[in-house]
Design a protein that fits this description.
6 helices; 8 strands
Length: 210
Amino acid sequence: MTQSAPEPAVSAGPAAHAASPEPHFRAAGAADAPAIAALHAASWRRHYRGAYSDAFLDGDVVADREAVWAARLADLRAGGGRVGGAGSLTYVCESGGAVVGFAHAVLDEHPRWGALVDNLHVAYGSQRRGVGARLMRLAARGVAERSPGSGLHLWVLEQNDRAQSFYAALGGTRTERALVPPPGGDPARLAGSPGCLRYVWPAGAELFGT
């Protein structure tokens, strides 16, 4: 995943590229909720074991993510990834007719750090192919267009060294540590008291200009 990778084209819908084996990036639509939820749950089961409880990951995680994504994408407005009203952006990457990655950003989430990349997940078999980096650049570009002057930040699990290296390679700076908030506000879904780290990109960072 290099900074010199060409910027992908983004379309508003899946029809023209649904069966293509080449990665295709587009704004998400309400119909993508089940596929995004399934990928989200699979990613949590693979990478969040030890931070989230086994009972949650092996039980309610799929239903939980289906409810979250159905709600997030229900109010889709046409054009530019305007999902959930004017305050968020969601992009997906398709390959061979399947969603293999997605990114979700919340605009103006923090008064200092700006927009929050609340989710960035790539299917295990599609990792290390540039999908995650391109989704991050799409999110940054969308934030710059919709909220000029905004920075970007996200939280990553303290146990996830690979993800931390990925965000550092994209120019993110680690600023602080916090406790992981429980999914759905239920502390029983956590395994102990896991930590997470904030990575930030200020307005004007290279990520916004690629």
